[in-house]
C-alpha cells in the first residue's frame, strides 16, 4: 500500500497535466506536453506492472473488507496492464496528447478530413491495446472494462435496444406538440459564472478543495482534496453554463464525498464511470431540472439578469426541460440524450471491430443521425467532431453515460421514497437532503464495491432501465400532453 500510495500520487500529477492542457497551457506547448505525458505514463505503467507488485499480490492477505477491495482493484489493474506492452502505453499517451489539439483545430475549421489520419492512428493503437487486454476475448468489451468493470457490450446493447422505442415515442410526441421558447436576452458571462459558483456550493461542492475554470468541453478532474471542474459560457444561453456546472459538480462531489480513509488508494476514487455519471446526471436532471428547483432558480435568474423572456416559474420549468432539435450531445434534453449515446456506442463498436473505417466515419455518423433524428448534420463540429473522447482514445467510455442515466433513475426513485418532503427543500434552493442521501448511499464508498453492487445496495434491488423510463414518461408526458 505504501508503493500504491506513491503511484496514486504520481497518477494525480499526470491528471493535473491533463487538466492544465485543457484550461491554461499555452498553445505552443503541445509537443512538449506530449513528451511529458508520454514519460509520465511510461513511468506509471512501469510502477503498476512491476513484478514486485505481482509477488506482493501472491503473498498479501486482507485484514478487512476495505483491504479486500484494495487488493481486488490492484490485482485487476495489474492483470490488465501486464498484458499491454510499455512501448504501446507510451505511444498512446504521446499520440493522444497531440491529437487532442489537432482535434480542436479540426473542430474549429469543421474539417474532419484534416483530423482523420490522426484518428486512424488512435484507432489502430486502441485496437492493439484492446486485443492485448482481451487476451482472446472481445476487444471492445476489454476497452469498456476500463470504464465500467464487468460490463459487456452485448448486455449494454440489450439495455439500449429496450430503451430506444420509448425514447423515440416520447421524442416524436413532444416535437409534434407546441414548441417551447428558450430564454432570451444577453446574459453577462461574469454574472453567469458567479451564479454557477453559487449553485455549485448549494449542491455541496467544497471550493476549499476545488476550483472552477473555463474549458471548451466541461469536465471534472482529480479526487480527494483536489477536485477541479470546468464550465463554459454562452452569452445567449445561460443554461449551458449553469447546468454544465451542476453536472460537473455531481462528478466532483462524488470524489470529494469518498471516505477520507481511502484517499490516495485505489478505493479512494469513483468505482466506475457509469456510477460517476449517475451522480452528475441526478444532480443536473432529477434535482437541478425538477419543478421545485426550477421555481428557486427562476427567482435567482430574474434577480441577476432581470427580464429573461419567461413569464413565470412554471413556464421556466417548461423552458429548462424543453425538447428541441439540435446536434450537440451535451446540450441535449433528457429524452434525446440517450439517442446521442446509442449512436456513438454503435459507431465506436464498429470502429474497434474493424467493421467501419475512419475514412467512412463522417458519412456513417451523418447517415445514422439522419435516421435517428430526422434531419441532416450541417457541419462536422455539430457531428463527428463535436466530442473530444475519440481524439484522446476514450473508446468504450460513451455507453457509460447512458448506463449512468439508468443508475440515476434507480437512485432517484429510491431517494424520493426516503425523502417525501424533498421538493420543499428544492424550492428553497436546498438540494442537501438528496446530496447527503447520495453521499451516504453511494459516494462515501468509493471503490469498495463492484459498480452494480453500489447501486443495488443503495436501492435494494438490481438496477434496470424501468425507473428511468417511468420518470421520463411522467415528466415529459406532463410537459407535452397528448
Automatic annotation (TrEMBL):
UniProt-annotated binding residues for Zn(2+): 247, 251, 277
Entry's EC annotation: 3.4.17.19
BP GO annotations: proteolysis
Cited Gene3D superfamilies: 1.10.1370.30
Entry note: cofactor: Binds 1 zinc ion per subunit.
Keywords: Carboxypeptidase, Hydrolase, Metal-binding, Metalloprotease, Protease, Zinc
CDD domains xref list: M32_Taq
Residues annotated as catalytic: 248 (proton donor/acceptor)
Pfam family, one: Peptidase_M32
Xref: InterPro entries: Peptidase_M32_Taq
Cofactor: Zn(2+)
Catalytic reactions on record: Release of a C-terminal amino acid with broad specificity, except for -Pro
One Gene Ontology molecular-function label: metal ion binding
UniProt similarity note: Belongs to the peptidase M32 family.
Function statement: Broad specificity carboxypetidase that releases amino acids sequentially from the C-terminus, including neutral, aromatic, polar and basic residues.
Full protein name: Metal-dependent carboxypeptidase
Species this protein is from: Roseovarius bejariae
Amino acid at each position: 500500500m505504501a508503493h500504491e500510495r506513491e503511484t496514486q500520487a504520481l497518477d494525480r500529477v499526470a491528471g493535473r497535466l491533463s487538466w492544465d492542457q485543457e484550461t491554461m497551457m499555452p498553445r505552443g506547448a503541445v509537443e512538449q506536453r506530449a513528451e511529458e505525458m508520454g514519460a509520465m505514463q511510461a513511468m506509471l505503467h512501469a510502477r503498476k506492472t512491476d513484478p514486485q507488485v505481482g509477488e506482493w499480490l501472491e503473498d498479501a492477505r486482507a485484514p478487512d473488507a476495505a483491504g479486500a477491495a484494495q487488493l481486488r482493484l490492484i490485482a485487476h489493474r495489474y492483470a490488465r496492464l501486464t498484458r499491454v506492452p510499455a512501448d504501446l502505453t507510451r505511444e498512446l499517451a504521446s499520440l493522444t496528447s497531440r491529437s487532442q489539439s489537432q482535434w480542436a483545430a479540426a473542430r474549429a475549421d469543421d474539417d474532419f478530413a484534416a483530423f482523420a489520419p490522426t484518428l486512424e492512428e488512435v484507432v489502430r493503437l486502441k485496437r492493439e491495446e484492446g486485443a492485448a487486454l482481451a487476451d482472446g476475448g472481445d476487444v471492445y468489451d476489454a476497452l469498456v472494462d476500463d470504464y465500467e468493470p464487468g460490463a459487456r457490450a452485448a448486455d449494454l446493447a440489450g439495455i439500449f435496444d429496450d430503451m430506444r422505442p420509448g425514447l423515440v415515442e416520447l421524442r416524436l410526441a413532444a416535437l409534434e406538440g407546441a414548441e417551447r421558447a428558450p430564454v432570451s436576452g444577453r446574459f453577462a458571462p461574469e454574472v453567469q459564472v458567479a451564479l454557477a459558483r453559487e449553485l455549485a456550493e448549494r449542491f455541496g461542492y467544497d471550493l476549499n478543495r476545488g476550483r472552477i475554470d473555463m474549458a471548451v468541453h466541461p469536465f471534472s478532474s482529480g479526487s480527494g482534496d483536489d477536485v477541479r471542474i470546468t464550465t463554459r459560457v454562452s452569452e445567449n444561453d445561460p443554461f449551458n453554463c449553469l447546468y454544465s456546472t451542476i453536472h460537473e459538480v455531481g462528478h466532483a462531489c462524488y470524489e470529494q464525498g469518498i471516505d477520507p480513509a481511502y484517499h490516495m488508494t485505489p478505493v479512494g476514487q469513483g468505482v466506475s464511470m457509469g456510477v460517476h455519471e449517475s451522480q452528475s446526471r441526478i444532480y443536473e436532471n432529477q434535482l437541478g431540472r425538477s419543478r421545485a428547483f426550477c421555481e428557486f432558480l427562476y427567482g435567482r435568474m430574474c434577480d441577476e439578469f432581470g427580464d429573461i423572456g419567461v413569464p413565470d416559474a412554471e413556464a421556466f420549468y417548461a423552458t429548462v426541460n424543453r425538447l428541441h432539435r439540435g446536434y450537440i450531445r451535451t446540450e441535449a434534453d433528457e429524452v434525446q440524450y440517450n439517442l446521442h449515446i446509442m449512436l456513438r456506442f454503435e459507431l465506436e463498436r464498429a470502429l474497434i471491430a474493424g467493421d467501419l473505417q475512419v475514412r467512412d466515419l463522417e458519412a456513417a455518423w451523418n447517415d445514422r443521425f439522419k435516421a435517428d433524428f430526422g434531419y441532416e448534420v450541417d457541419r462536422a463540429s455539430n457531428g463527428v467532431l463535436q466530442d473530444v473522447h475519440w481524439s484522446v482514445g476514450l473508446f468504450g467510455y460513451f455507453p457509460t453515460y447512458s448506463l449512468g442515466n439508468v443508475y440515476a433513475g434507480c437512485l432517484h426513485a429510491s431517494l424520493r421514497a426516503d425523502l417525501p418532503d424533498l421538493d420543499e427543500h428544492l424550492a428553497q434552493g436546498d438540494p442537501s437532503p438528496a446530496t447527503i442521501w447520495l453521499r451516504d448511499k453511494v459516494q462515501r464508498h468509493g471503490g469498495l464495491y463492484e459498480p452494480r453492487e453500489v447501486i443495488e445496495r443503495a436501492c435494494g434491488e438490481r438496477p434496470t432501465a424501468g425507473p428511468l423510463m417511468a420518470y421520463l414518461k411522467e415528466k415529459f408526458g406532463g410537459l407535452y400532453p397528448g
